[in-house]
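User: Structure tokens for both sequences below?

Assistant:
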Amino acid sequence: MAVLALSSPVVQSYIVYSAILALKLISVSTMTAIARMTRGVFANPEDAKTLKGKVKYDDPVVERIRRAHLNDLENIPAFWVLGALYLTTGPVAAWATLLFRVYAVSRIVHTIVYALIPLPQPARGIAFGVPYLIKWYMGFQVALYYISAL
């Protein structure tokens, strides 16, 4: 098993890209709130009353942002787990950093082409597929590394 130290470049890389992804994740919830306020549509009657809007559950702009946020919630936590486990396999720092970087950039691009500037396929599919494959790769590497322990 690899020794993990905060001074390790691969650990620092994981921390930086994990923080970027966490900030990205919370920024999408802010985007949802801004879309709700600017469009005057809310999910709760008390919010609609206070902010002089209406209750509406199917606003297309708000729902698109919410779907992008849900997609993040379904995918980014798996990266955090698999990335942390991947660190324990002692990966080459440059390769692991590339994986972490490409994952983070792809997830940011995914939000842009899904929620901010909707583009036709395959833009969103590629932005989803690349990080999806990275998670599978890291997961397989972890399983292969530790399979002998069974």
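Moving on to the next sequence.
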Amino acid sequence: MITSAIAWGYVADTRGRKAILVWGLLADVICVLCCALSQSIIQLMIAKFIGGLVMGGPFAVLMTYLMEFHNNKYRARVMMCIGIMFSMASLSMPILAYLVLPQNWDFQMWDLKYHSWQIYLAISATPSLLSGVALSFFPESPRFLMSQGRTIEALKAFRTMYALNTGKPKDTYPITKLIDELSASNDQNFEEISISTIEPVTKDPVKDVEEQLKTKDPSPFLALFQKPYLKLSINVYMLNFCILLGQNTMRLWLPQLFASLREFQELSAESMHSMCSILEYNVNKTGLVKETSETCSVIITSDSYTNNIIVAGACFVAFLLASSLINKLGHKRLQIGALMISGSCGFALYWSSTTISTLVITSLYACMGSLAATSAVGTSTVLFPTSLRTMVVCVALMFGRIGSIFGNILFPVFMSFGCIPPFLMVGGVMFMACILSALLPSTKKSDLK
């Protein structure tokens, strides 16, 4: 996903959004099924790597595609709705794992052996299949079409949206002609006109820059590393780097943390146990596993997923609340608040001494981190013009995934230094992200006016 980010961003900003979404999701179905059919680690890794190459585009394009169907009034809320859908997906996956993975499903077909985890992977291809088929009936982003001067196609897309939203015939759409943005004067704001000619025009702070970039026709990637977007781009990239470093480090550690908590409770009669004791037990057990030559016997119980389901459910509730507050607060204020809570939870985890307190703190950390990550993507789409949106989202997510890799490499290193360092890391990066978020321009509509 990291290696393909720039290529996907360039294709999406020059060729369109819909085709990447449809064909990318359908190709992902094939990759996931290849993972499910794999019979060796090498086959599984190759299929996953190709799947990452394929999904790097649709994942980023989806954000831009949905945002461009809405005007400034609804864009922030749309991002929270995307977060709600992601949290529902995060909730459904441990529930699916709860139902499938503990089953002793081992069978052979021809010379191929299959297990419950492969069935789990095969089922997880269903969302991509349904999404790819459904999106084939949707129009191309009219905002993208207008930015390319394809006004006739954009008008057809608006008519399709009008018919779907109102149930009226397409030929009753009141707008009969769109202005060609490529030849339009600089005093017009098409971010609002592309959605409705009735709404009051809002001055776009990046409009003059967008027109200048169109005139020079620079490469979308190079434009992000030139004035006037260089400083803003670096800020957005580092923001995503820090947020995903902290969020994904914690998110990927949670299943192991909960499993270690459960094992430690069974071994110890004490009801109170420090997080340092859990970390020490975790490190010692890892050392024993490395030294032994015995075959690893994996015992999966349904209880292994209960806490993860609770965390995902908490994120769903958090996004529901955020969707009702985002328009009042704006991306920036929501980000700063979520990052401060998340960073505080990262530090507070050090003092957690019970299973309940650990579950509450990790749930808050995961929820606020996910909220901040989604809001950061929304910020990226609002602060940059149409011609650069998908590219900046792709590159920002690329930096975020690099941060995820760094976090998962550094976390065990910090664990080896002692008990406090890993908590300083997961909490500290969130406060660093909070500072970066505070340096960004406001994206609240009333502030833009």
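User: Anything stand out in the second?

Assistant: The two ends are 37 Å apart (CA to CA).
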